Amino acid sequence: MDILVCIKQVPGTSKVEVDPVTGVLKRDGVDSKMNPYDLYALETALKIKEQQGGLVKVISMGPPQAKDVIKEAYMMGADEGALVTDRKFAGADVLATAYTISQGVKKIGNYDLILCGKQTTDGDTAQVGPEMAEYLSIPHIANVLKIIEIKEKSVIVEMDMPNTIEVAEIQFPCLLTVEKGIFQPRLPSYRKKLSTKDREIKIITLQDFEDKDEKKYGLNGSPTQVEKIFPPSINNDRETWTGNGEQLSFKIATKLKQLKFV
Questions:
Q1: What is the pLDDT of residue 224?
Q2: How far is 67 from 90, CA to CA, in rounded Å?
């Protein structure tokens, strides 16, 4: 089985500046890490490989330094990796990102199963995986809690719906986004680090795509534009009240009126 895992390099801190003109994160000089949710997708792929055999490939979209997360994936057990990178991809919203990665997936070729983390910690939209599946014209299931059974031509999964837990069977090739905790991610291996330090990372740019229309990528291809983005203000003001229940409830009610919450 050929399994493709989508991984992303995200800021390792919440203290990231925002470009006031484009509204995108300034990632230069910021400590980065693999998106935590993607670790669960990668672990799921490695578990399936151990049981079923096959290859685990990873794909990431980002600047050249995003190679680091692919190297980390190698240290965990991934077999191949590709980085989709081009200045023309910068500033992409979720739709342009999904289209860009789907073009990269087409360039990579064969796959039976695509796995994505539920969402990324720098965007939290949880939209890229399903949108990719739509662009690739393959079935998909989001919020997968458990892989129940892998058959020759399909997989049975347990998924988290708003009010219920449901079981569904989906045909290959397909895309799944997995929930946090589906498996406990393994730690990178130092031995694998040594053995994979020279392993190739395939670089994919706009010129490698089937669709080379620049208007579909980056800021140009993003139908949603950030109107304004800013860090939340920090308020450390606090008051300590004492008294019995009746006195405290009166103080709370008075304060809420002062703040015009009621």
A1: 86
A2: 16
- End-to-end distance of the chain based on CA atoms, in angstroms? 59
* Helix ranges restricted to H, 60-155: 67-76, 94-108, 128-136
Between the CA of residue 103 and those of 106, 135, 260, what are the distances in Å? 5, 9, 51
In this structure, is residue 252 part of a structural domain? no
pTM, 2 dp:
0.81
Query: For residue 80, what is the domain's CATH number?
Result: 3.40.50.620
Using alpha carbons, select from 72, 91, 119 the residue that is nearest to residue 217. 91
Starting at the edge strand found earlier in the chain, the sheet holding 202-204 runs 165-171, 154-160, 140-150, 174-178, 113-117, 2-7, 55-61, 80-84, 202-204
Q: How many domains does the chain have?
A: 1
Query: Tokens at residue 49, please?
Result: 């490989």
Best CA proximity match to 10, nearest among 102, 57, 72 = 72
Q: What is the pLDDT of residues 217-249, one digit of tens each?
A: 999 999 987 777 666 677 788 888 999 999 999
Residue 246 lies in a domain: no
Chain center to CA of 28: 19
The model's confidence at residue 12, banded by pLDDT at 50, 70 and 90, is confident
- Domain, as residue range, for 16: 2-221
Does residue 239 sit within a domain?
no
Please write the tens of the pLDDT for every residue from 80-126: 999 999 999 998 999 999 999 999 999 998 999 999 999 998 888 89
